[in-house]
From TrEMBL:
Keywords: Endoplasmic reticulum, Glycosyltransferase, GPI-anchor biosynthesis, Membrane, Transferase, Transmembrane, Transmembrane helix
An example Gene Ontology molecular-function term: GPI mannosyltransferase activity
Pathways involved: Glycolipid biosynthesis; glycosylphosphatidylinositol-anchor biosynthesis
Name the record gives this protein: GPI mannosyltransferase 2
InterPro entries on file: PIG-V/Gpi18
One example of a Gene Ontology biological process annotation: GPI anchor biosynthetic process
Similarity remark: Belongs to the PIGV family.
One Pfam family linked to the record: Mannosyl_trans2
Transmembrane spans: 117-139, 145-163, 175-195, 201-226, 265-289, 335-354, 431-455, 487-510
EC supergroup of this enzyme: transferase
Enzyme Commission number(s) from the entry: 2.4.1.-
Cellular localisation: Endoplasmic reticulum membrane
Length: 513
């Protein structure tokens, strides 16, 4: 009777939670779409009211190998004014992405800094879905339109995955909703609505993280690998599998006392990380093949002769002056001030977590209680073991695994979306931002923030860190604490100011970030 009653209560709670989460998903999607429409409207307004600082956007020299690309110079279009408006929106790094897509080649050494996923998507859409538009607007304008379309649609899906991920990590749908809406109106929003790689990176990063924490390791690996095809920092997503492997290996070796299983765990983790790194290094090899092979030694570029010839690092250092402490100059003080809000938020979020959960933070999660580790078992323990190895495990370990397996089977029989589960009733859900599940995200944020401050052009930190989940989780956490009105005002004022400033400066070819 008790079992039937609790099953019925759980079913009722799930049924109650499911509509709420469905409403939240709908609200997140609406917010994401509204935010993109707002950004595109602002771009159009600022472009029409102001004269661009740099008027070179419409320039379009022929591809070096004309047979490989199409050139808009010879196009006779039906709507030249609309075509011109689209082409005028191809500014800053967008020029490189569109150029690669247009010419189907990396023509210059510095263009290899822009990874191929976005140009490939742009080229594909321009030759398929939007091909009928070429006679109307011209090829380059259609390329630009494809880029805008891809990134704005990708952002909507990224926001959706971010909400689903946040619910599972924070175990609080209200907190997840607030964080997701903050992401929809984040300070780097202009880059998510322009022809930049941020939207695709966020989509595949958030998607990969969602599948990682729900047990879909294969899909997570593919998503993370694609994020590395969009932006170089996508390879850092391999760190999540390193974190998972470290804890699973500890679980297998010291708790289950099973050496062979430990080797299996380490091997699987290493292979997953290699798969995530492979696309980025394959692209470096492609650059080496095009630039270095077949040349005399005295004609080779300096990086070709290096022991580890990494083209990306050379480009960043040689063309843009990226390097450790190289940006620490008095004349760069305005750029440090521009990046100070996002860096301050990142540092505060890390310090707050470390001070609130020192035993978790400084032990990398090894000092956490069994109950808390079980709340995020897919990251911190062996959730499942291959059947071939079960016979070799001690009897107690086998019973424990079988019990967990039966519990998982009962959960899967309900076929309920993990985001719809009434997890707010879990005592550990009260931890929210301070839960152990947030730890690997905090560690990655710390590494990225340090890199942005000490190595990169610091003003890029605003968009470089904009796809880091802890920033929005921490900001959302601050908003529900005593005196939260002040924090909410500051956070929303910061986002609104950077959205307005970014759309004004960036769209008119003025320096922003």
């Amino acid at each position: 009777m008790t079992t039937t009653t609790s099953t019925s209560a759980a079913a009722t709670a799930t049924a109650t939670a499911f509509p709420t989460n469905q409403q939240h998903k709908s609200l997140v999607l609406k917010s994401a779409i509204l935010s993109r429409l707002l950004l595109l409207t602002l771009i159009l307004i600022w472009r029409s009211l102001l004269t661009p600082y740099d008027t070179s956007a419409p320039l379009n020299p022929n591809c070096l190998e004309i047979a490989k690309g199409q050139n808009s110079d010879s196009d006779v279009v039906l709507f030249p004014k609309l075509a011109s408006a689209i082409e005028n929106g191809i500014v800053w790094d967008s020029v490189f992405f569109v150029r690669v897509a247009q010419c189907a080649a990396y023509e210059y050494e510095q263009s290899y800094a822009f990874l191929p996923l976005l140009p490939l998507f742009i080229s594909f859409l321009s030759h398929t879905v939007f091909a009928p538009l070429v006679p109307l607007f011209g090829y380059r304008a259609v390329l630009g339109f494809s880029g805008y379309f891809i990134n704005n649609v990708a952002f909507v899906f990224a926001a959706f995955y971010f909400y689903k991920l946040s619910v599972i990590i924070l175990k609080d749908s209200e907190l997840a909703l607030r964080a997701s809406i903050l992401f929809c109106f984040n300070p780097a929003s202009i880059f998510y609505s322009s022809i930049y790689s941020e939207s695709l990176y966020a989509l595949f990063s958030f998607g990969g993280l969602y599948y990682l924490v729900t047990g879909g390791n294969t899909v997570a690996v593919v998503s993370f690998a694609l994020s590395g095809c969009a932006r170089s920092n996508g390879v850092l997503n391999a760190g999540y599998f390193c974190f998972q492997t470290m804890h699973r290996a500890y679980d297998a070796l010291f708790l289950k006392k099973h050496a062979f299983l430990t080797i299996q765990v380490l091997t699987a983790g290493a292979l997953r990380c290699i798969c995530i790194f492979t696309p980025f290094f394959a692209f470096q090899a492609y650059g080496y093949y095009n630039i270095c092979l077949g040349r005399d030694l005295h004609e080779m570029r300096p990086w070709c002769k290096a022991r580890v010839p990494l083209l990306y690092n050379f480009i960043q250092s040689h063309y843009w002056g990226v390097g450790f402490l190289r940006y620490f100059q008095l004349k760069q003080l305005p750029n440090f001030l521009l990046a100070s809000p996002i860096l301050s938020l990142a540092v505060c979020s890390i310090i707050y977590y470390a001070k609130s959960r020192p035993e978790i933070f400084f032990s990398l999660g090894f000092q956490a209680s069994i109950e808390e580790k079980n709340s995020s078992a897919l990251l911190f323990s062996l959730e499942s073991v291959p059947r071939s190895n079960i016979a070799r495990l001690p009897e107690k370990s086998y019973s424990k695994i079988q019990e967990n397996h039966n519990l998982r089977q009962r959960k899967h029989m309900n076929r309920v979306d993990p985001v719809a589960l009434p997890i707010e009733n879990d005592p550990l859900a009260k931890l929210g931002y301070l839960s152990i599940s947030v730890l690997p995200f905090i560690l990655q944020l710390g590494f990225m923030a340090a890199t942005a401050f000490f190595v990169m052009h610091v003003q890029v930190a605003t968009r470089f860190l904009s796809a880091s989940p802890p920033l929005y989780w921490f900001a959302s956490h601050l908003m529900v604490h005593p005196g939260s009105n002040r924090w909410a005002y500051l956070i929303w004022a910061y986002s609104a100011a950077y959205i307005l400033l970014g759309s004004l400066l960036f769209s008119n070819f003025y320096p922003f970030t």
